[in-house]
Amino acid sequence: MNALPPPLDPAALGLVRPDAAGLGALAAVVGPDGVRTDEAARAAFGRDETEDLCFLPDAVVVPASTEEVARLLALANARRWPVVPRGAGTGLSGGALPVAGGIVLSLARLDRIRELDLENLTVTAEAGVVLADLQARVAEHGLRYPPDPASRDSCQLGGTLAENSAGPRTCRYGATRHWVLGLEAVLADGTRLVTGGKNRKDVAGYDLTGLLVGSEGTLAVLTAATLRLVAAPRTSLTLILPFPTLDGAAAAVAALFRAGHQPTACELVEERALAAVGRLLPLPGTLVGRAAMLLVELEGDDDETLLGEAAALEELVRDLGGDEALAASDPAEQRRLWAIRSKVGEAVKGGSIYKEADTVVPRSALAELVRAARAAAERHGLQAVCYGHAGDGNLHVNLLKGDLPAALWRERRDAAEAELFRAVIGLGGSITGEHGVGWTQRRYLPLRHPAAAIGLQRELKRAFDPRGILNPGKIFPGDAETAPGEPC
What we know:
Blueprint: H1 20-30, E1 35-36, H2 39-44, E2 59-61, H3 66-79, E3 83-86, E4 103-106, E5 113-117, E6 122-126, H4 131-139, E7 143-144, H5 157-163, H6 170-173, E8 180-186, E9 192-196, H7 208-212, E10 221-228, E11 230-231, E12 235-243, H8 246-258, E13 265-270, H9 271-278, E14 292-300, H10 303-319, E15 326-328, H11 331-342, H12 344-350, E16 354-360, H13 366-379, E17 383-389, E18 394-400, H14 406-426, H15 445-448, H16 451-464
Parallel strand pairs: 2-4, 3-4
Antiparallel strand pairs: 1-2, 5-6, 6-10, 7-11, 8-9, 8-10, 12-14, 12-15, 13-14, 13-17, 16-18, 17-18
Helix pairs in contact: 1-3, 9-12, 13-14
């Protein structure tokens, strides 16, 4: 077993790493096949989708039921072992990385859809269900579970709950928290907790459901959820709206909402991101040389209404200096237009080592955000590329390494990122819109919240998890780091 130290010293946190006897006790809970200590498993579960990070756990434990999760946590709490809950490992802030060693608790075997209630329009599913599978199941009945992170084909429901995940549809439907009616969770000491239910209203006491959604695995292990569903729209229309100026595109975002439009998605891709995706797939001629584009998705129950709304949008865009729109209602053509947006991340990140910042500002500050990102990057000899969910003011800013030496890249990256987040806060924004604080953003939490607010959140953490075993080192700044990570 790799003996390198974890980046956080467990002893400094009042925790210990499990020894061989402890691993045997874990196997007694979940069976010998439910505990993995081989190098391949430790390496695989020591990573997520966060760039350049890998921290090895002592063991990967895969329980098969909520009862096994409860017994595992009771054991870990009694022995002060770090426990890191994990879904599919698609996170982008290091939230599922075992930065103090210990146990990675995979929820992959909790993969049942327990109930689809067509009268109350709810579905109850376990944490290990793949989001796309859940959405396909409810779609068979003409229903939709709207949250749609980019990782929906592989991410697990529990991870989306822990991160309060969002995606392009959030500008119409809201993020994950908006769709959660109730939770099944296990506290750090093994206590099973059920919050909420199928009621659409419930103000009896504090909103524990809302608190646990988005808590990043630091307060409890989420094992199942009851979710709201809606009828799926019958038809949709996709628009690409090119703009010769960034300010025109940003103004159009605010204007279309002010005019009463409710798009399902409103995505922005600025010129550097367009250039990158243009190297990956052919772009329509109307996008060549443009400063920005918006992708707008409209949905409804009849084509005539959508065509009328699209015509009104095109007129609004022309009034703001936009160019001729592209529109598609045929599913294959819609997928072609959506590929321009969905391939941006692959195109940008495929050309360089990068650092992604998950910035969010009021919609009125979108253009200022892009300019601030470019300025912060350029002051440190880097390039910034921006794209994302304009309807929410949530843009992903990618700082690119280019051909810089590794040490210089790290220094300039950190300086540019800090400057960027200070600018974001100055625009009334936040350090993360959907990726979570996790490990990588925790140093910036004091930019977003005053000391009193952070202190209150720490008290909440202690109330739920007095010994601090759940996902240590996440969200809060200030824990002593002893190493940058382990090679995997």
